[in-house]
Automatic annotation (TrEMBL):
This is TIGR00266 family protein. Transmembrane segments: none annotated. The lineage of its organism: Bacteria, Bacillati, Bacillota, Bacilli, Bacillales. It comes from Lederbergia citrea. Pfam families: AIM24 (PF01987). It comes from the Bacteria.
Length: 262
């Protein structure tokens, strides 16, 4: 194996964190800001790119950092290395309510395509790059953009998604259509495209977007029930001054409708 072999435990229910156990000299990489806690004896270092073997040398590091910039992520990642003589633990937390999905790339063809903000952490050696969709229509109309993250290697990686996670296995020829924001990850053999919702009434009054993702098997797809964009829009809509009310549904809301003061 080219990647470090790490043990882990996922703790919690709706606000999970993953606790990674590192043997001496083992390393895990993570997004900046995802650290929750770590034992004494673990060395933390910020690196340009993802620190994988494909990014050795200045040119490789610059290309890796540039790819991350295209996905809207930070140019830097953080490496956590156990420099002690015994086992140590480091934990990474979910950024919002949902689930952490452990993915063993060695069992998934060595590659996973995921949403650009889904990656949380991985064993050192996993390459974090970008995956361009074959059709530009997926980029212009897909909501989440046609640039997605590509995780390659043969080690463990952890991605995060909102709400409840549903793993769907597609047989050859199977087709599933989902909201573009609900797509978390998929194996590289899944064919992915964007389709327009048919019918003007459906598009204007159905409460959904004009486009959805069409996934065609074979392959495996992970779907989330609560995309962060949907959660954020609901929170924003309920904020005072943004079309919402602090006491929505109460007497205060009635006074606001009637133009009264309290």
């Amino acid at each position: 194996m080219n990647n470090h072999e790490i043990d882990y435990e996922i703790i919690g229910d709706d606000m999970q964190f993953v606790q990674v156990e590192l043997d001496p000299s083992e390393t895990v990489i993570a997004e900046a800001g995802s650290l929750m806690m770590m034992d004494d004896g673990i060395h933390m270092e910020t690196v340009f790119g993802d620190g994988s073997s494909s990014q050795n040398g200045l040119v490789g590091k610059l290309m890796g950092a540039g790819k991350r910039m295209l996905t809207g992520e930070s140019l830097f990642m953080t490496m956590f290395t156990n420099e002690s003589s015994g086992k140590k633990h480091v934990s990474f937390a979910s950024p919002y309510p949902g689930k952490i999905i452990p993915l063993d790339l060695s069992e998934l063809g060595g590659k996973i395509i995921c949403q650009k903000d889904a990656f949380l952490a991985a064993a050192k050696g996993v390459s974090v790059g970008i995956a361009f969709q074959r059709k530009l229509g997926a980029g212009f109309f897909g909501g989440e953009g046609f640039i997605m993250q590509k995780l390659e290697g043969d080690g463990m990686t952890f991605v995060h998604a909102g709400g409840t996670i549903y793993k769907k296995v597609l047989e050859p020829g199977d087709v599933v259509r989902i909201d573009t924001g609900c797509l978390v990850a998929m194996t590289s053999d899944v064919n992915y495209d964007i389709e327009m919702v048919r019918g003007v009434k459906t598009a204007l009054f159905g409460g959904e977007g004009l486009f959805f993702a069409t996934l065609r098997g074979p392959g495996t797809v992970w779907i989330q029930s609560l995309p962060f964009s949907r959660l954020a829009s609901r929170v924003f809509a309920a904020m005072p001054g943004a079309g919402g009310s602090k006491d929505e549904g109460g007497l205060g809301g009635l006074f606001n409708i009637l133009g009264g003061d309290r």
